[in-house]
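task queued by scheduler; priority normal; single chain, no ligands, no partner chains; default sampling; output format set to structure tokens
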Amino acid sequence: GKVLVFLDSHCEVNEMWLQPLLRPIREDRRTVVCPVIDIISADTLAYSSSPVVRGGFNWGLHFKWDLVPLSELEGPEGATAPIKSPTMAGGLFAMDREYFNELGQYDSGMDIWGGENLEISFRIWMCGGRLLIIPCSRVGHIFRKRRPYGSPGGQDTMAHNSLRLAHVW
């Protein structure tokens, strides 16, 4: 298709979740959009709404969630307006296929998991794109308590990927 949608395998979509993601991409093909990621309990599978947050990162180049200031939610569209986000979680987003290819897809130098979301976020912003959280799109995600897979030779892939991110950008 013209638009690629990435969803982790441990997600549950809501009704009408896709349509709000597609509109900003149609308006500008260099827009990358993310739903609000709600929480599904890994123990009980209970579904709960998340606050409207956006992606950030710390000095160790680890992804974190930041609250959106109320002033940004008080515009003409209110709490339904798209929210600019510095970074994305990485496992739930949609973007134009050609733009994904122009950006170089995912960095093949990254190992297994960790940091790839920040790397592609930086690339989106530095290569003429924009990254938005779309409050009218909500997708549930099971947040595991621990990483369910190992690393080759016990390597710390998060550290490897964070160092690669720092060297590349």
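post-processing summary
- The mean pLDDT is 88.
- The longest strand covers residues 130-142.
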